[in-house]
Amino acid sequence: MLNNIGLPGLLLIAIVVLVLFGRGKISSLMGEVGKGITAFKRGVKDSAEDEEKSLEAPRDVTPHVDPAPATAARAEAAKDKV
């Protein structure tokens, strides 16, 4: 049904919308749509930059183990055997 609208039908719809809502309301609505698109593009760009940063500098997530207590325990065990 919607594939038969054509150019005259679209112009008629545009004129009806303009009459119903007025020029000021439509222009403010289009301004808000533009702001939304801009915010969406900014969010996508920021997300892509964050992902690139995370790929550039890998973090070391291995747990830190202090070797001193283990060697001290071995030294104590060696003294006990002697």
UniProtKB/TrEMBL annotation:
Membrane-crossing residue ranges in chain numbering: 6-22
Subcellular location per the Swiss-Prot or TrEMBL entry: Cell membrane
Short name of any one Pfam family annotated for the protein: TatA_B_E
Residue segments, region Disordered: 48-82
InterPro entries (alphabetical): TatA/B/E, TatA/E
Membrane topology: Single-pass membrane protein
Keyword presence, Metal-binding: no
Keyword terms of this UniProt record: Cell membrane, Membrane, Protein transport, Translocation, Transmembrane, Transmembrane helix, Transport
Biased composition (Basic and acidic residues): 54-63
Chief place of localization: membrane
Domain of life: Bacteria
HAMAP family: TatA_E
PANTHER family: SEC-INDEPENDENT PROTEIN TRANSLOCASE PROTEIN TATA
Family per similarity comment: Belongs to the TatA/E family.
Functional summary from the UniProt entry: Part of the twin-arginine translocation (Tat) system that transports large folded proteins containing a characteristic twin-arginine motif in their signal peptide across membranes. TatA could form the protein-conducting channel of the Tat system.
Subunit comment: The Tat system comprises two distinct complexes: a TatABC complex, containing multiple copies of TatA, TatB and TatC subunits, and a separate TatA complex, containing only TatA subunits. Substrates initially bind to the TatABC complex, which probably triggers association of the separate TatA complex to form the active translocon.
Name under which the protein is recorded: Sec-independent protein translocase protein TatA
